[in-house]
Every structure is written in structure tokens, then in C-alpha cells.
């Protein structure tokens, strides 16, 4: 049986909290979306929380951020509770998956604690006498757990410590790197090395977010609207999410509506000055209004695991070429896709091939470009393959 361990997903470790991890709120959103789409993978969900009452020298007014830290995760405070987005997702699961057990472990009450395996359940975190007063390892064994997936905050500290202990306890352990974040790049890299040296599997979760670039118009070419609809449906049905430009018009509105109709998570990012040009979609999972196009593009890139350019015009081309150029520069290594509905991008592909033939465009970069025309082909190329 496989369990999901959600480590310390608390506001105290997110932006605005006492000990923030960069991107913490985004990780809470991703975990919530992952639960929404992939709860069927699990026979048990366990959350851990820092729940400090009097942790001794763990707190300091002059912390060194190695052994001592500013006060955080203080028992009974709002920032020590589960992140609101995660809490809402777990509550929704009680309705959609009533037979899926949820347990909570608190740690660090009177001492420094990093690993979830230091914590125990108590009457405040479970009303099930089956699970009260159990250390995490015993709790997992009582449920018959053999495999665990570990997510949460921070990858460099409590997620790493929890995963290493899970492996030592004999559980086949996987860390979903996209559902966690480190305190810093260096500490994150060190944690990943330690995990891999301990034979912990580090991989991407089964949940992907696709940045979809496309037109705010419908165009006259037959089939464009239906193709956008099928792609939105296909991404959502496969248990994945979309981030896009936030409008409700044209092909961009079609793909958003199609994904939402299948219960998918759809995030929109729209500049405030587009009011009246691209009317904001009001039914999204989340809509962020940002200052300008540059911020919009950066935010979409931050949230995306893959970039897909559907048929579009100048704006779509500009967004596509920027993320493709960033891949060439090593800014990211995420897949970049042209969704070639009815040969829409054939002329562009021919031009790109001619540039590569005269060694102006890198043939290696051109080879990295994925070209598909169906949802299944996209998922096969990016995830299944």
C-alpha cells in the first residue's frame, strides 16, 4: 500500500510566514491540485506539522539558520496550522474519497525536529483510537504501508530528513521534487545528492502543469476551436493542469473552459491593462492579475512544467520563442511544444528547418522542439515517453 506524506505544509514556511521558503504558497497550490487529481494512488494520507511549544535552543533571537532559527511553527498559532489551500483540498477529499484515511503527526513540541518520523499522533490530530499516540513509522505499518511518496517543505530540510528516515525504516521512498522547494539552491542540491545516495527515488510527480499559449481570437481555419477544446479536455482528463493568459475569449477561453468542464485545475495570469481587450475569466481555479506582460510571462513560466504553443498570432509567437530561447540558454530544461493543428505551424517549421540547414539555428535546439497534433501525442511525448 502506498501512502502520501505531506511534510510541514504550513503558512509559517511560506512567503509572509516566520521562516519562508521561496515558492511555498505555489507548492501548497500544486499539492492541492495533485490531491484533487491523483488521490486514488493512495491508501493513506499523512500530514506533518512543526508544533513547537518549548523547543529549547531550537529558537534564537540571533539564529545561525543551521542549528538555531527564528521562532516558527508555534503551537496554536494560525501559521502553524495546515496551509488553507491544503486544508481545503483535504476537506474536499473527505467527501470525494470518504474511505481514504487521513492522519496527522505533530513534531518538535519540546525539541528541535526535522523528520516527520520524530512526531506522533495524539487526540488533537486524530479521533481514531486505532491511530492515537503512534510514531509515524508505527502509524504507517499499522495501515500496511510499503511505499511512501514525500512532498512539502522544505526540500532541503524536513522533506529530506523525512524521506531519508522513511528509507531507513524500510519503506520504498519517492520524493516528488516538483511538489517541494528548498530554502536555497545550494541546500536543495545537497539534499538531492543525499537522497539519491540513499537510494531514494527523486522524480516529477504524476501531475503536470501545461502553459498553453494561443489566440484570443477564434480565426477562420476550420478545426481550431475543436482542437483547442479537445486539448483542454485531454489534459484535464489525464489528471493534469493548465496555466494560461487568463482570458475568456477566443481559443484561450475555449481551452480553459474545456479543462474546467472535466474538473481540471486552470490558473490564469493576466495584466491589469488587458481589461477590455482580453476579458478576465471569472471561473478559474485561480486568477492572478499582474502589472505587465513581462511579469505575466515570467509567472506563467514559473508555474509551468511544459510549454505548448497552439495556433496563435504575434503574442503566441513571442511567448513561444522566448521560452524556447530560454531553453537554449539553459534557463530551464522544460519541454517546448508546437501543437500543430491541421498543419497550422507547417510554414514556421519549414522556416526553422531552413535556418538550421545554414547553421544559423542550432540543429540540437531544433531537435528539442516537440511537434504534436493530438492530446495523446502530447502526453506520450512529454510524460509517458
Automatic annotation (TrEMBL):
InterPro entries: Isochorismatase-like_dom, Isochorismatase-like_sf, LOG, LOG_fam. Residues 3-88, 135-203 form the Isochorismatase-like domain. It comes from Lawsonella clevelandensis. SUPFAM superfamilies: Isochorismatase-like hydrolases, MCP/YpsA-like. Belongs to the LOG family. GO terms for cellular component: cytosol. GO terms for biological process: cytokinin biosynthetic process. GO terms for molecular function: hydrolase activity, hydrolyzing N-glycosyl compounds. This is Nicotinamidase/pyrazinamidase.
Amino acid at each position: 500500500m502506498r501512502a502520501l506524506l505531506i511534510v510541514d505544509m504550513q503558512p509559517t514556511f511560506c512567503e509572509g510566514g516566520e521562516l519562508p521558503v521561496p515558492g511555498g504558497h505555489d507548492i501548497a497550490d500544486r499539492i492541492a491540485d495533485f490531491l484533487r487529481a491523483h488521490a486514488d494512488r493512495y491508501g493513506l494520507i499523512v500530514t506533518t506539522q512543526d508544533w513547537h511549544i518549548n523547543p529549547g535552543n531550537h529558537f534564537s533571537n540571533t539564529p545561525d539558520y543551521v542549528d538555531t532559527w527564528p521562532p516558527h511553527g508555534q503551537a496554536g498559532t494560525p501559521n502553524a496550522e495546515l496551509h488553507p489551500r491544503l486544508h481545503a483540498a483535504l476537506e474536499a477529499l473527505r467527501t470525494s474519497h470518504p474511505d481514504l484515511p487521513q492522519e496527522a503527526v505533530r513534531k518538535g513540541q519540546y525539541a528541535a525536529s526535522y523528520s516527520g518520523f520524530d512526531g506522533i499522533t495524539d487526540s488533537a490530530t486524530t479521533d481514531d483510537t486505532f491511530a492515537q499516540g503512534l510514531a509515524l513509522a508505527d502509524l504507517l505499518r499499522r495501515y500496511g504501508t510499503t511505499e511512501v511518496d514525500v512532498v512539502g517543505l522544505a526540500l532541503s530540510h524536513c522533506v529530506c530528513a523525512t524521506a531519508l528516515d522513511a528509507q531507513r525504516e524500510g519503506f520504498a521512498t519517492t520524493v516528488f521534487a516538483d511538489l517541494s522547494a528548498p530554502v536555497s539552491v545550494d541546500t536543495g542540491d545537497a539534499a538531492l545528492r543525499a537522497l539519491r545516495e540513499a537510494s531514494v527515488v527523486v522524480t516529477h510527480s504524476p501531475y503536470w502543469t501545461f502553459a498553453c499559449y494561443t489566440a484570443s481570437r477564434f480565426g477562420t481555419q476550420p478545426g481550431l476551436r475543436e482542437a483547442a477544446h479537445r486539448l483542454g479536455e485531454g489534459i484535464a482528463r489525464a489528471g493534469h493542469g493548465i496555466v494560461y493568459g487568463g482570458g475568456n475569449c477566443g481559443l484561450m477561453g475555449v481551452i480553459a473552459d474545456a479543462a474546467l468542464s472535466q474538473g481540471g485545475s486552470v490558473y490564469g495570469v493576466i495584466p491589469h491593462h488587458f481589461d477590455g481587450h482580453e476579458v478576465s475569466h471569472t471561473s478559474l481555479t485561480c486568477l492572478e492579475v499582474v502589472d505587465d506582460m513581462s511579469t505575466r510571462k515570467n509567472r506563467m513560466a514559473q508555474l509551468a512544467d511544459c510549454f505548448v504553443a497552439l495556433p496563435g498570432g504575434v503574442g503566441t509567437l513571442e511567448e513561444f520563442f522566448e521560452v524556447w530561447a530560454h531553453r537554449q540558454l539553459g534557463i530551464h530544461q522544460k519541454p517546448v511544444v508546437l501543437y500543430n493543428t491541421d498543419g497550422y505551424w507547417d510554414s514556421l517549421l519549414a522556416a526553422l528547418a531552413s535556418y538550421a540547414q545554414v547553421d544559423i539555428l542550432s540543429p540540437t535546439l531544433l531537435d528539442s522542439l516537440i511537434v504534436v497534433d493530438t492530446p495523446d501525442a502530447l502526453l506520450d511525448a512529454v510524460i509517458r515517453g
